[in-house]
Design goal:
- The protein is an alpha+beta fold.
- It is 36% helix and 27% strand.
- The protein has helices at 93-102, 218-233, 255-276, 293-301, 308-316, 324-334, 336-345, 367-376, 383-390, 398-410, 415-428, 431-438, 445-457, 461-473, 477-486, and strands spanning 3-8, 14-15, 24-26, 28-30, 38-47, 50-58, 69-78, 81-84, 87-91, 109-113, 120-128, 137-145, 151-162, 176-177, 180-185, 192-200, 238-248, 284-289, 352-361.
- The strands form 5 sheets. Strands 4, 7, 8, 9, 10, 12 and 13 form a 7-stranded mixed beta sheet that branches. A 4-stranded antiparallel beta sheet has the order 3-5-6-11, with no helix packed on it.
- Helix 10 packs antiparallel against helix 11 (415-428) and helix 11 packs antiparallel against helix 12 (431-438).
- It is elongated.
């Protein structure tokens, strides 16, 4: 069962004019400078008593040392009048980690790490209109401070001017679109089961099945397997439940001998693993496939080798099913040059053992446990645990957004994870990012409602009305209120 949680928008809403009424659009002129922080994509408009600004604060060229931080503050200013707008704190690596843990960020600011994405911040804000704003300048204040918090430098420069005074719209209807956002609480997993997979390319002497750890590239291949198993086994939050090995030989030579090699080499690798770890016999599982024709077919399908289609037909036709020696002889005798090349360049990669390590992860119940898992490795967490942690932070805070976006990255096919990641993007006015998440958010009523909010913010009120109506009929009570907000007044 899904449980919906409603969270109010933390930003100013979108002011919507009544149908047929004009919105006064304010133009701007960018001031091109060589400063490291700039305003881009600036859009300003006046509706009724509101003056709205949308812009991107771009600090991609701002470089901050590990222990330092830069505080970037945009301001709308004309003469002695000014309004401070939402800003950013861009910190070096070590300073960023400390600030993220302490949460010591001024109200109205967001924390970013220098040199890491994202390197820009979208701002959508509205302020009460005053006449001086018609000829205002957008100023950026950039203050760099060291680990002792003492300022290293401070600069203030203009990045854009607002255009000529505009005609006041006297008959606009002040209606602010402030939808109530609806998240979905992911269902808790009864057991968190995960898997690690890999391919081992162990070198064996011709016709041998014994493993020689120092032979050719075996030191590297065996180390990869050991590292994968040890990483999971030595973590107290993990319990290995099974290790499955499946070995393959390449198609050249007699089928019976290849079956002997595939079986023997797979069991040799299993015995090698047993010799290193005290696993229960029930943990290890082995199987084999005498000849990896599937791997050869996959390679041929993506190649441009001469006579590719004819070779694919030989490798896949049911005519030779069960008679693999004849299939291999037909391939070899029909296309000897290509076969010789395959033997040297492709067949070695068809001699491999695939391994799958299944393991369970313990559940984390308290916020302290969940936070410790987050700081250790977010991959240990379930969607439900990530949701609990995200909603323990203030709506719209850096951690709130980061955790929801991490959840969508860790569970990219989850409709709930993508929906929940889309909502902070809607709240911050990043409609492009919200739309990307909503494309993968499924067809739940909550997703339809969120898409309705997106369409309303884009000005597509007809589409938004349809989506809100559908969501309301499906039981999303917040959808009716959103629909009422965008209804045209008579």
């Amino acid at each position: 069962m899904k449980f919906s949680t409603s969270i109010k928008s933390f930003l100013i809403g979108l002011t919507i004019p009544a149908a047929g009424q004009m919105v006064a659009q304010v133009t701007y002129t960018p001031l091109y400078t060589d400063e490291p922080v700039q305003i881009t994509d600036l859009n300003t408009q006046r509706v009724g008593k509101d003056f709205q600004l949308r812009f991107t604060l771009d600090f991609s060229d701002l470089k901050v040392k590990s222990e330092d931080k830069a505080t970037v503050t945009p301001m709308l200013k004309a003469g002695n009048d000014s309004v401070v707008l939402p800003g950013a704190v861009v910190a070096g690596h070590n300073r960023y980690l400390r600030l993220r843990r302490s949460g010591a960020i001024p109200e109205g600011y967001k924390l970013f790490r220098s040199g890491h994405a994202p390197s820009s911040m979208k701002v959508a804000v509205g302020v009460p209109f005053s006449e001086w704003m018609n000829s205002a300048v957008i100023i950026l204040s950039d203050t760099l401070s060291g680990c002792s918090c003492r300022p290293i430098r401070s600069s203030e420069y203009a990045v854009a001017t607002i255009g000529d005074p505009v005609e006041v719209v006297t008959n606009a209807v002040d209606r602010v679109f402030t939808p109530e956002y609806v998240f979905i609480t992911p269902v808790a997993e009864v057991e968190k089961v995960r898997q690690a997979e890999g391919h081992a390319y162990i070198d064996f002497p011709i016709n041998k099945t014994e493993i020689y750890p120092d032979y050719r590239k075996n030191p590297t291949e065996l180390a990869d397997i050991r590292d994968t198993i040890s990483m999971i086994k030595n973590d107290r939050d993990y319990v290995i439940t099974s290790i499955t090995l499946k070995g393959y030989a390449s198609p050249e030579g007699p089928y019976d001998n290849n079956e002997r090699l595939a079986k023997g080499r797979t069991e040799a690798l299993a015995e090698y693993i047993r010799s290193l770890y005290d696993f229960s016999p029930s943990i290890m599982h082995t199987s084999w496939e005498a000849e990896d024709w599937g791997g050869l077919v996959k390679w041929l399908e993506s190649s441009s080798i001469e006579n590719r289609k004819a070779m694919l037909w030989i490798a896949t036709t049911s005519k030779y099913d069960g008679d693999y020696d004849r299939r291999e002889w037909i391939l070899k005798s029909s296309y000897p040059e290509q076969y010789k090349w395959l033997l040297a360049n492709v067949y070695p990669g068809l001699r491999h053992t695939d391994y799958t390590i299944m393991y369970s992860i313990r559940s984390f119940t308290t916020i302290d446990e969940i936070l410790a898992a987050w700081n250790d490795d977010p991959r240990k967490m379930s969607l439900n645990e990530l949701y609990k942690l995200a909603t323990s932070y203030p709506v719209g805070s850096d951690m709130f957004i980061e955790i929801f976006e991490t959840a969508a990255a860790l569970f990219p096919k989850s409709a709930e994870a993508n929906l929940n990641a889309a909502i902070p993007a809607l709240q911050s006015g990043d409609l492009a990012r919200a739309e990307r998440y909503l494309k993968k958010a499924g067809d739940s009523p909550e997703a339809e409602y969120a898409r309705g909010i997106l369409e309303a913010m884009k000005g597509n009120y007809g589409e938004a009305s349809t989506l809100f109506t559908s969501a309301a009929n499906a039981g999303i009570s917040q959808a009716q209120d959103a629909l009422n907000q965008i209804q045209t007044t008579k």
